[in-house]
Known about the structure:
Layout (H helix, E strand, L loop, with lengths): L5 E4 L2 H20 L7 H6 L2 E7 L18 H9 L1 E3 L2 E2 L5 H10 L3 H4 L15 H7 L3 E6 L12 E5 L9 E3 L3 E4 L4 H15 L6 E6 L36 H5 L31 H22 L3 H36 L6 E7 L18 H4 L3 E4 L8 E3 L3 E2 L3 H9 L13 H4 L9 E6 L11 E6 L2 E6 L5 E6 L17 H17 L3 H11 L1
Parallel strand pairs: 2-9, 2-10, 3-12, 4-13, 5-6, 5-9
Antiparallel strand pairs: 1-8, 3-11, 6-7, 7-8, 10-11, 14-15, 15-16, 16-17
Amino acid sequence: xxxxxxxxxxxxxxxxxxAFGARGQxxxxxxxxxxxxxxxxxxxxxxxxxxxxxxxxYQAISAYGSQLVQTPNxxxxxxxxxxxxxxMVTNSICGPSxxxxxxxxxxxxxxxxxxxxxxxTRQPVFPSLLQQNGYQTAWIGKWHLGNLPVGFxxxxxxxxxxxxxxxxxxxxxxxxxxEGYVTNIITGLTEDWLNGRDTSKPFFLVVxxxxxxxxxxxxxxxxGAYDDKDFPLPPTFYDNYAGRLAxxxxxxxxxxxxxxxxxxxxxxxxxxxxxxxxxxxEQKKPFYDYYENKISREFDARKDTGENLVRxxxxxxxxxxxxxxxxxxxxIGAMLDYLDKKGLADNTVVIYASDQGFYMGExxxxxxxxxxxxxxxxxxxMRYPGVIKPGTRVSAxxxxxxxxxxxxxxxxxxxPADIQGVSFLPLLEGKKTVxxxxxxxxxxxxxxxxHVYPHFGIRTERYMLVHFYGPVNSWELFDLDKDPHEVxxxxxxxxxxxxxxxxKVQLKELIRxxxxxxAAKILEKESK
Length: 528
């Protein structure tokens, strides 16, 4: 890929950030947490590629049984490796999920609880340990942590959330605008780096995809890819939120929150809009032809109101979202083909995951945040030739705090003692392993965006107990065997009193185990 558009030196800003990052890396190295291996030992270890998308729902992946769309290339990773059916996140929001990947710690421990802050890169991050142990490391694509990456020999990251078209990409010394579609560009940069890497070392590479983040702009060849398909409404689409105060007061519904002009591109502003004003004329024309001359005219002619309008918005949302995901899957296929062509596939671990789950109309919603199933669960598939038996399904509860120690384990590097996750590599190797039966979750960001009350809770294989706090003080309990859609709050019902008592004991133990002092204080105050 040839970058030709323009380069802006970032001057003092990048100098300061690089110095800040260097201090963080020095601190990690000074702690001496990993034994440096010889080059010969390092070369024998597998390469690792971690593809991390944004807001990609497991319900939109055919390997997970989706009837909405086919995703043959993500499915290929699952078919040739393992599919995790209970992969979950500890804080369902973009930046904090990435901070958890880097540290193997909960948000309250790595300090990154909310979006749009600055991640403290002075703390240990596991790619630095890989560097110390002979790995060449890189992060390409979406980063979204406010500071420059530390622990990577190379990075080329999107500016903030990034742009779908003609994105600005930040390197160690400059920012470059690259013409084209972001998913294609990230794949091109990935192949460029792989072509020029130090082949005497194994590599660890994060491919950070922007797709499928709001406002869902498809690649030009994918415009209208699903227009001939009607999508069924989820069973909970018209949920009335009875008995669930937090669900009742959120602001993330397709009906009220989703914006016709920006989200669904109905009579979009092609002159002043931040979405379209960076397009080239050649890019803008097919968008205008499709969304203005086709979709907007159809919308005007329908004159929908009430439930018909909501249903139309839902259909348009899915069509744009899935068309955006189409390019994502296609580019994953290109990466897999590259590994095959270069003879790297047999010694390269490939992981595909999203930073969290996402709502595809369930409960009438889009976005994420809640401890509820669709936002708690994330897609996670993994191929490790010679180790993972093709077609493996992992039903154990795995968390994104486990990702860092698992990668270190694969690389033969001992994780730091303060990492809170646990490697699930033994599960994949078929070893008898004592594993968690419950997981802990804590979400913080309130009131904006989407007005989801802060909350923490416990999820077991059968039950979910959650406590909402802040402006409200409420509890919810769901029996997932009887109510998999989580619509009937059982908290306070006599038949479940013993269950609540047992779950609260387990919840307090998890809070103690993960040293969440804020949650402990909230529970202590409530008990008085």
